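Quick check before the chapter quiz. The format below is the same one you will see on the exam, so make sure you can read both the input and the output lines.
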Amino acid sequence: MKIQDIMKILEKDMKVAIFSTVDEDGQPHARPINIGVANEDGVFFMTSPKTNFYKQLQGNPKIAITGFLEEDYLIQVIRIEGTIRKLGKDKLQEVLADNPYIDQVYPDEADRQSVQVFQLYEGEGFYHSLTQGHKYTFEIGK
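Here is the expected output.
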């Protein structure tokens, strides 16, 4: 399986994944985040500067992403561990384009316009079909 196929599953089928970070005390934190865009250039997502997630991303650029999808017989897991960078407003419209949760997460237009885009631009990933036994590793940005 090619990286393009794996990233399409992450973006179009899973849509939301668990993003894990650590805070300034080294304590782990995990939360569901919408996958804005996922392709061979990485994973693009957004958050507001008002969130603890944002502060953790600024304090430590290392994150882990885990997506899970169960459809009938097929169970798929995608894990990526890597390094992020802040893109700011770059790609914001693209990341917002298919986000069905934006109105609920950021109901205020001012909050929506304050969000910043981040990119996981370098890392290692693992795809596993739990029911079929398929396993693939892939790299982003190396």
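If your answer matched, good. Residues 62 and 83 are 5 Å apart (CA to CA).
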